[in-house]
Amino acid sequence: MILKLFFLPSIVLIVILSQGLFHQSEACSCAKPEIPLRCLADFVAIVKITREQFHARRRPRWISYNYDLLFLIYDKYFLAGFKKYRVLWTPASEEACGVHLKVGQTYVIGAKYNPYTDRLELNSCWAYVKPISEWKPKKWHIYGLMRKCLLYKDFTQGERKKTPDLSKAELAQD
To answer: Which residues of the chain register pLDDT less than 70?
Structure first.
């Protein structure tokens, strides 16, 4: 009996003390959405990545990707014409559901507008990112896929979040 009284608290004490030594790791996990990711996006376009910049001072760490707009498919908040929104933001690590893009590569992207940070963001849970080599013959097929989003109530009657303040935004030169 005395052995049980000593043994059980010892195990509990060891477990409590070891919590500081073993850190929990976080991994990206997402619930599968009921509608296609492209239909959840606020901004869908064919883009060519021109620059990658790592932002280490921010917590969590972020990567920004500048892009050239090749073909605009859908723009819920009319952001495409402004320089400020010619940048895509994503978490720097895959554990935080970040999306990694290659400079010089062309992609079909579906990004979300974040009203709190006032920027376009990519995340592996809700962003649509697909590399594409020959985009010109495929652009109307992709556009047709977006037209199918009209079937989904979430796409046609989606809630309007805080819209971007474009009064001081600088126009992009194309």
So the answer is: 1-27, 32-35, 58-59, 150-169, 171, 174
Please, what is the end-to-end C-alpha distance for the chain in angstroms? Answer: 82
Q: What is the pLDDT of residue 30?
A: 74
**Token pair in block for residue 105:** 């590569």
Q: Is residue 166 part of a domain?
A: no
| Cα distances (Å, whole numbers) of residue 115 to 6, 107, 156 | 56, 24, 19
28 domain residue, yes or no: no
CATH of the domain at 117: 2.40.50.120
Distance, CA of 149 to CA of 153 (rounded, Å): 9
Exposure string over 121-148, b if 16+ CB within 10 A, otherwise e: bbbbebbbbeebeebeeebeebeeebee
For the purposes of burial, counting CB atoms within 10 Å of the CB of 114, is it exposed (0-12), middle (13-18) or buried (19 or more)? middle
Q: By the 8 A CB rule, do 45 and 120 touch? A: no
Residue 162 covered by a domain: no
Helix ranges restricted to H, 106-168: 139-147, 153-156
In a domain, 45, yes or no: yes
Q: Which domain holds residue 146?
A: 37-155
Q: How many domains does the chain have?
A: 1
